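User: I'm preparing a small set of examples for a lab meeting where we compare how different chains pack in three dimensions. I only have the primary sequence for this one, and I'd like the structure in token form so I can line it up with the others. Please keep the answer compact; I'll paste it straight into my notes.
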Amino acid sequence: MPLGRPELLSSPRAVPRRRLLALTLLPAVTGCATILRLDAPPPGVAIDLPVLGIPNARFWPDGPPEALRREAALMLARQRARSAGPLPPANFLALSGGGDNGAYGAGLITGWTATGTRPEFDIVTGISAGALIAPFAFLGPEYDPALRTVFTEVARPDILLLRHIPLALLFNVALADTSPLYRLIAQQADERMLAAIAREYARGRLLLIGTTNLDLQRPVVWNIGAIAASGHPQALGLFRRILLASASIPGAFPPVLIDVQYHGHPYQEMHVDGGAATQVFLYPPALYARNLADPHAEPRQRTVWVVRNGRLDVEGMSVNRGLFTIASRSIATLLHFSGVGDISRIFLIAQRDGLAFRLSYIGSNFTAERREPFDQAYMRALFEYGAHKMLSGEAWVEAPPATGTLRATADRAVIR
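Assistant: Understood. Below is the structure token output for the 416-residue chain.
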């Protein structure tokens, strides 16, 4: 990164020594490699750019549904090709975001295996923490030990490194460095996992991960199976970056840049947590699942299982008049009811399209305290709570319940 005009830097009189030293150190302090980026592709063409040359690598759920409809039809065609008779019941799993609360969904999945009733999912979708669970849930019980490890054997240093806040606010794109999280993702999302996802995609199953394209302010749904099946040498790297992007909370975690090309010129897209656009997703309302069914076949039972890695109740407390308190409380309220609205939308789509609906969430009876983000003891307790809830037969409700107000607890009180 250039520091200035060469003639100015060549003269000690032109630039005092102290100032020259500051200019010399500036790139190291600011981390200019993390701030600078290539231009985003022109908005008018960005949605049609095939990442890694894979035409169905991703979809835009807020746009026309034709591409997603073609992918769903292809999925059903593959299922029929390997089925000698009527297709078995279909099961769709939607995993929400939730940060360290993702331990709930991870425990739920492993508890589901222990009950002997866990189905093979035709479609698995994930956002943020749900995106980190999704590949394990998609690939089946064989991956339960790894899922347990990811959500019970890690602590905050295994996820992020907090920066010095004043410097981070001045010179960085985020408050934390997520290189530990990327290393964790790279350990688990390896060639073996990618090959397994490709095999399941060929069988007619979909793994979909959501991110948010900040340049376009639009949600993106990544077709991980198509990426895995492409055989592209950069497919694994893209898979890992999608998982990292989906979990990258804006401001807290650095955004992830995705390389694309247009007319031979390189560009970069900025992607962050899928929760910036939606907390949990299945398929867009414009796509009518009932229209994909074979009219000559017997009706197929279909169930959508929605896992909210968070609570549905809200907390009552006395909010002081501090700027930070008011802002953080308002953002928390916004995100909470955004998630509640996403669940309601999936429920209404299920009602319209004839899908059975099941919802699981963290109940008010879970009272373990969180001492810090990604507190290992808290995550272990939540993992066991999710597993026990499944084993006890209390995991699912058939409609979004009414929510109440609880007294704030130590682990969830707003910072004052």
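A couple of notes for your slides: The first strand starts at residue 58 and ends at 59. Residues 1-33, 167-171, 408-416 have pLDDT under 50 and may be disordered.

User: Perfect, thanks.
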